[in-house]
Amino acid sequence: MNTLTEHDRKLSETLRSLSLDAPAASTGRLPRLALLSGVILAVAAGLAIALWPQASAYWESPATTGGSQTRTEPADATTTGAPPPVPVHEVTGSGYLIAPHSTTVFAKYEGRITQVAIEIGDRVAAGQPLVVLEDAGARFSLDEARIGQASARLALAARRITADQARATLERKEALANVLSRQEVEDARTALARAGNDVAQAEQDVDKAKLSVAIARERIDALTVRAPIAGVVTRLGAHVGDTVLARADSTLERLSLATIVDTNSMVIEADVAEANMALLRPGLLGEAVLDGFSDRPFAVEVLRVSPSVSPEKGTVGLRLLPKAPPEGMRPGMAARIRLATTDPQRGAKDR
Questions:
Q1: How far apart are CA 69 and CA 55, in angstroms?
Q2: Domain boundary residue, one of 221, 245, 275
Q3: Is residue 100 a contact partner of residue 265, using CB atoms and an 8 Å limit?
Q4: Strand 111-116 relative to strand 267-273: parallel, antiparallel, unpaired?
Q5: Residues with Cβ < 8 Å from 38, sequence gap 6 or more?
Q6: Same domain for 273 and 320?
Q7: Is the pLDDT of residue 70 over 50?
Q8: Over the stretch 171-180, which tens digit does the pLDDT of each residue have?
Q9: What is the domain range of residue 40?
Q10: Which of 31, 196, 249, 261 is most deeply packed, by most CB within 10 A?
Q11: Where are the beta strands (DSSP E) in the chain?
Q12: Are residues 245 and 123 in the same domain?
């Protein structure tokens, strides 16, 4: 402001020194007046050019205008009033594929293997025959039970005939009660009751024989060992000609016939550093890659976070569900995982 005033004062003095006290009286002085006017205009133009940068800067300054200067800056939480973004962290770990739904197949009864209908790597359906055994004693037991059932049915038929005769005798004696003694009528009633009991006993014998046949048939049916679940055969211990023990006598896995794994329900068991415990929760999404399929990553979701931490390794266990994993993966494959998590405590502090 002071600089502009000083220049104005100098300009005013210069113009005053060049001004005329009185107008020209004769036409002879016109050239002189024209020359003086040109000098004045030239000096004024020079001063204007010299003072223009300072005057321009002065009028463009915020202090002079009293307004705000517009700046193109990225909006942040302070200017917009929106909460700051929650920091995103990446949690990594490693683990293995496991099959939570798998079963070891045993023979329920002892027998000799006559047929093996599967091989390692075969995919089987639930109820599909796997191994066929032969047990002559079981077949003899079934034949014996069937014979016993037939005998029980014959005995039941005979008892029913006896009961029908006893009922007819009682009805006849009751009709002749006037000419027969009371004792004869009572004896007929007793005989009918006894015949009825014999029929009931015979019916029970038929039910027992039927049960014996069912037990014997079940043992025969069990000689065909079937798949309890659908899956892939990962182990096969059955060979034609081998004699296998009953399930109660062969609890060791090496004595089993086969192992079936449901590969459609495989999950990843992975470990991550316990320092990330506060960031982990079921439902987190991430990515996994198998060492056997290193060029085919796939999405995963956290199903469960272990409630305990391994003191030896300083890690916490996770169970993750693969989503659209590569075909051909097998239990035991090594896997690497990466999860995108947010820090709830850090986000709360920022808000």
A1: 18
A2: 221
A3: yes
A4: unpaired
A5: none
A6: yes
A7: no
A8: 998 888 888 8
A9: 2-18+34-62
A10: 261
A11: 88-98, 102-105, 111-116, 123-124, 129-134, 224-226, 231-236, 243-244, 258-261, 267-273, 285-290, 293-310, 315-323, 334-342
A12: yes
Q: C-alpha angle 313/315/319, rounded to 5°? A: 130
117-143 per-position pLDDT tens digit: 999 989 999 999 999 999 988 999 999
For 139, the enclosing helix (H) or strand (E) is helix 136-175
Residue 189 and residue 170: Cα distance in Å, rounded?
A: 6
Amino acid at 51: L
Contacts of 287 (CB under 8 A, 6+ apart): 297, 298, 299, 300, 337, 338
254: CATH: 2.40.50.100
Same domain? For 202 and 151 the reply is yes
Helix (H, G, I), strand (E, B) or coil at 194: helix
Are residues 298 and 243 part of one domain?
no
Q: Do 238 and 216 fall within a single domain?
A: no
Question: What average pLDDT does the chain have?
Answer: 79
> What pLDDT, on a 0 to 100 scale, did the predictor assign at position 240?
94
Residue 328 resides in a domain:
yes
Q: Please give the pLDDT value at position 85.
A: 55
Amino acid sitting at position 267: V
Q: Residue 68 pLDDT > 50, yes or no?
A: no
Q: Which two tokens stand for residue 105?
A: 């197949």
CB 238 within 8 A of CB 257: yes
User: pLDDT per residue over 204-235, tens digit each?
Assistant: 999 999 999 999 999 999 999 999 999 999 89
Least confident of 79-93, 247-261, 291-305: 79-93
Mean pLDDT is lowest, of 19-23, 66-70, 306-310, 315-319, for 66-70
**Considering the entire predicted model, what is its pTM?**
0.57
- pLDDT category at 67 given cuts 50, 70, 90 is very low
Consecutive H or E run containing 7: helix 2-18
Number of domains in the chain: 4
Q: Looking at the structure, tell me whether residues 109 and 249 fall in a common domain.
A: yes
Decide if 129 contacts 224 (C-beta within 8 A).
Answer: yes
